Amino acid sequence: MASHSSPQSSLYLFLLFFATIFQLATSANILFKCSDSNFTMNSTYQSNRNQLLSNLSSAGWRTGFSFQTLGEDPDQIFGRALCNVVLNSSDCQTCLLNAVEAIKTNCSSSTRGGLWYDNCFLRYSDTNSITSDEKSWSRILYNVADISNADKFEEVYSNLMGSLADRAANSTNLFKVGTAKFTGSITLYGLVQCIRDISPDDCYTCLQQYIGQFQVNAWGKQGGVMLGFQCYMRNDIYQYFNLSLINATPPALPPELPPQPKGKKKTSTGTILAITIPLVLAFVLIAGLCVCFLKRRKSGLMTKPLLNGSNPDEIISAESLFIDLSVLRVATINFAEENKLGEGGFGAVYKGVLPDGREIAVKRLSQNSGQGLGELKNELILVAKLQHKNLVRLLGVCLEGQEKLLVYEYVPNKSLDQILFDPEKRHLLDWKKRYMIICGIARGLLYLHEDSQLRIIHRDLKASNILLNVEMNPKISDFGMARLFGGDQTQQITSRVVGTFGYMAPEYVMRGQFSIKSDVFSYGVLVLEIITGKKNSSTLENDETEYLLSFVWQHWTNGRITEVADPSLGQHYPSSELLRCTQMALLCVQENPADRPTMSNVAVMLSSETMSLQTPSKPAFCIAKSSIRGGGNTDSSSKSVPMTQNEVSITDIEPR
Hints:
Mean pLDDT: 76
Shape: globular
CATH class of the largest domain: Mainly Alpha
Low-confidence stretches: 1-28, 250-272, 293-318, 484-497, 538-545, 622-656
Number of helices: 17
Oligomer: single chain
Number of strands: 24
Number of domains: 4
CATH topology of the largest domain: Transferase(Phosphotransferase), domain 1
């Protein structure tokens, strides 16, 4: 009897066949970019190039990345080799050896050349930096098969790839892989990777740009690859990497060592000393630290435990942050009034200078402040474990007698509200700086929500809790009200609603429900404040109070959105960028939490100029000044419009 396969089985075999063909096509293609300028054949430069390529192929496979330079100006040459993290050492070495021959053939006499070959990248140049021509070069290859439910798939894609990009940029080796469930039977696999000697900012910018461009050009497709001179990204619905890579870290880059002479090895006296001396010094240092620690405990400076009944690991991490009160008194000149930076609901903040010259900000909690030991412990443990350029860094803590002090890095431009709402200072924030602040806060929140070891809800995001450094880069501060979520937990309910009216989401104000979407609401309000220069409630000439969201929504519905821009900006801003930020912010302040984007979505919205955004519905008004106690306006007659599909399709590898 002949057997008949089911339609599902046939579809599965077809997809498997297509996936195999796609994988083979990806590895078989040689993608290269050669400069128009040429070197002289048989010249010193050509000799240096050939030797450099050989050095790269012999060194790059050991750690998956190698940087080399050879020769002297004007014949000096620079090179980089990078293997895709999915390759093992043996496959990496084979790939690089083949790539060397391929780049010699395809860029035979070019002064500069770059080549992607079978999951590895090779580049040589007469300059160490990436040229503008190289930076703008990218290629895209994608699976031409369509995915069902494209809107949902693109949301999963945005969340996964946006999260991976931020985590990769904040990792030591600039790569991350991960997975996300699309349906019960389909998983999306994502990979992002950067050249390992570029800055985290450049890595993040490159990845976000590629993620957005891929989404535009491959909308509704099952997966694909986008690559260039600085970064690489891939996503697909079949498993193309070992899942152990999700938690793996590639080996650190060793210094390039000269080749060792062959023959019998001998252990020299110098080698023995090089090993022994550091061990002895390490032993002495550890012994000294133990003695100091024991003396410190006996001195009574830590007689009041910071974390009663807490995890022992938390106690150890907290004790390492203790600073003596005497040190902080000297640093702040005994908390002199002239050193006071400001004062909030929990106490004053003072500027200080440590003995080593570091400038600090000391948060001195008042004895009658609402922030007790519980909130102090919360802030200490949370901030001590967070490391991100858009989060303020905790340096230490002091608990002596009645004093409760937190010591932070000093951020010279103080808080955003002191500049944004000051009629004389607001001109310091041109549109470029405001946009940088909007993006920086988004990156910090994304880290808190998805990319840190802990999932953290800030709960009190507002302009006064955004600090600005010398370059006006934002740093989120004040984690006293933050809450930690564990595992797959997405929502909590509290009977103690804390935060600042005007920034709090309606479900939090009325029902005590908070989640990452609560922070998203606060972020949306904050972005609208940055755009308009208005506080979340402001008094008009007739002494009536108008809530910021109603002000912006009225202009949005009347098609006059550029009129909401802060007058101090003049007309010096790209209207398309202002419109995009306003639309994104209105999406963040939707009344229904499910209608708000995640911070991963926000990051993609900000990084992609061509990605279509949903049409916002009428935002929540429940926290307007006139209705804080009444529950607010719940009218949401207009509905969200699904994200428009981009109809651009590319069926071959094309440059950007």
